[in-house]
Design goal:
By secondary structure, the protein is of the alpha/beta class. Helix content is 46%, strand content 26%. It contains eight helices and nine strands.
Length: 242
């Protein structure tokens, strides 16, 4: 075989081996065992990829007894549900993550209702700290957490974001990026390194796990509820501006 055919064939072979190696490692993760999301779908879907990046950077906590949950649909008011992207239960506390796989410059304060996002044109989105604090409150309610049990709120943006003038005042919540995530969680973990014993951590996991096993019908209802809330918010804004 001529060399001009050998080189491209070798490159394709190496690429295939690399792909299947990464796919094999992916299928051995807790993320795959819980979500059953196919490798290609996780790599190509923006939301799932963001969740996986949180897990991948913190998976070493599993060696220390940490347990992950993904896409928890917790009950709320008016028979509606709220979806929590990622939860980590560790002896140092419960960590509730809101994944924002965004790009551009992000601005915002904890007290603001909306945060600006600077791309080619300026847009805004609802304050993710407020959003995730409602998730924290629901986690506490479902688990019946005592106030001394730490439940931390973390909003995680992609590394394509630049956090500009993002101000967080509360001690139990933080905004970070993928590359800073380990450092951020470690700072929280040092506060109460033995907040949960093994029995309590396992009990919390067992309480929350059923909320990850929702049916397709329940997911569709959740999406309809979100759209209905969005329409209500747009209506309030229009009335306010009139």
């Amino acid at each position: 075989m001529e060399i001009r055919y050998i080189v491209p064939a070798a490159v394709l072979l190496l690429a295939a081996l690399f792909f299947f190696s990464k796919k094999r490692r992916y299928k051995a993760t807790s993320y795959y065992r819980i979500t059953k999301n196919p490798y290609r779908l996780t790599m190509e879907d923006k939301g799932r990829f963001g969740e996986y990046q949180i897990y991948r950077r913190l998976s070493f906590y599993e060696r220390d007894g940490g347990k992950f949950l993904f896409n928890c649909y917790l009950p709320g008011e008016n028979r509606e549900t709220t979806e929590i992207d990622v939860i980590l239960i560790h002896k140092s506390g419960v960590y509730v993550f809101e994944s924002k796989n965004y790009s551009g410059r992000i601005y915002g304060r904890e007290s603001d209702r909306t945060w600006p996002q600077s791309l080619k044109q300026n847009i805004s989105f609802l304050n993710p700290l407020r959003q995730n604090q409602s998730h924290v409150n629901r986690v506490r309610k479902v688990l019946g957490c005592k106030r001394e049990i730490p439940v931390y709120s973390l909003v995680v943006f992609s590394d394509r974001c630049v956090l500009k003038k993002v101000r967080v005042e509360s001690a139990d919540r933080q905004v970070t990026t993928w590359k800073r995530l380990r450092r951020t969680v470690r700072r929280f973990a040092k506060r109460q390194p033995d907040a949960l014993d093994e029995t309590m951590a396992e009990a919390y996991f067992q309480q929350l796990y059923p909320y990850t096993r929702v049916t397709r019908r329940e997911r569709k209802k959740h999406i309809r509820d979100i759209r209905r809330r969005q329409r209500r918010r747009k209506g309030w804004i229009r009335r306010f501006l009139e």
